[in-house]
Amino acid sequence: MSVDPSSTDPTAVDRAVGETARKWLAVDPDPVTRSEIQMLLERNDLPALRDRFGSSLQFGTAGLRGALGAGPNRMNRLVVRRAAAGLGRFLLVGDPQCTGRGVVIGHDARHGSAEFALDTARVLAAQGIRSLLLPPHVPTPVLAWAITELGAAAGVMVTASHNPPQDNGYKVYLGDGAQIIPPNDRLIAEQIDAAGFAISLAAQDHPLIEYLGDDIVHRYAGFAAGVRLHPDVPGVSVVATALHGVGGALLADVLEQSGLGRPEVVVSQHEPDPLFPTVAFPNPEEPGAMDAVIDLARARGAALALANDPDADRLGAAIPLADGDWRRLSGDEIGWLLADHILGRTSGADRLVVTTLVSSSLLERMARAHGVHHLETFTGFKWIGHAVLDHPGWRFVFGYEQALGYLVAPRPLDKDGISAAVMLVEVAAVARSDGKTIEQRLDSIRERYGDLRTAERSIRMAPVDAARRVA
User: Fold this and answer.
1) Residue 161 a catalytic site member
2) Do 101 and 274 touch, CB atoms closer than 8 A?
3) Given 161, 258, 330, 419, which residue is catalytic?
4) Distance (Å, rounded) from C-alpha 16 to C-alpha 348?
5) With left for phi above 0 and alpha for psi between -120 and 50, is residue 137 left, alpha or beta?
6) How confident is the model over 359-414, as pLDDT tens digits?
7) Can you tell me the distance from the alpha carbon of 349 to that of 353, in angstroms, rounded to the nearest whole number?
8) 109 Cβ partners below 8 Å, 6+ apart?
């Protein structure tokens, strides 16, 4: 089901697009997207048909991500079933033990996420592969952590992270707990193409489909609460927001369990809501996204304001200033604070810190001053995870990228906005116990390592457009 975009005959292209749409309609398992295709064909809506059926979402190192809707260029149940079939075929070829080790599957609260997760489990079970479904609405770090905790062969997280409400995505990890990188992304994509469109499904109650309880989430919470390096210091007043995502309740539980105290939350943004009604864009990096949590923090006289993105793998923060105003910390500033705290409270020349080439160079200076290993990777946290895997003789203690992604412990090998929040609150608590503010801590870091300045520019692009521009 493909259309040759190089054809110079628009009539021929439109005929091919229509033929692809009709073939897709015949195998689409979802009545909602089937109805969408039927309507577009009846209206002969050529621009919409070309957009949905003239090209396809490309499976890559970020898995799949795009707008929900019908056709190969949208996120829908047929696209997901084909992706699951391709992943299963890849695992069966490369890992003879994958049938017993299984695949851990989690999903956020976006439209379609629950259906995509269950479809993945049913496809894999039909291939003879054990599937372990996490409880509904889990943060991405729980999924990434559970892969190695359970000894699984792979993991799938259905989420579009901080994308707008109309999007969804499909993130794939292998058994090492890190996101896929080349050549595995290409090999999986080849297996997706080879899987075709006649995808077998197991029943929902198939014995190879296991519905995990809350125990695995509680085990992750205990791990995240335990990342503290100065557990005797009491917490500070914190206000937090989940931005309508799935991390709100877990973050509050983990902070309380860590001994840092339960944060006050922005009630209007605390429960998962796939429409993200109170924010224009559910990303803590975006101007205005943290306004509500900053307003509440100011009203309560809090020491710190925190924001997770909707799948809670990123962490934003804001701090009060001496004049009573508040400011949002940049991703690099949060990284400096965490690195300074961790390097100052760990020891050993075998330690490793990792960042990406678009992040600040200050981490390298800090590593040199502490006599520890430093690595710089391509952009994307998957490369940080694989840098850790590629250097087993070094002891990883911290990694970050400026886009609010932080890893403050050896697991999971992906960014974790929950455990990072624990560590950042501890940073604030230690500063207070020393009679200092977060701003003074940053001033001290600049004095010791160099007065670097950062600036951000956010450019919004649809995933398909972004991939096209990169190519």
Assistant:
1) yes
2) no
3) 161
4) 63
5) left
6) 999 999 999 999 999 999 999 999 999 999 999 999 999 999 999 999 999 999 99
7) 11
8) 136, 137, 245, 246, 272, 273, 274, 310
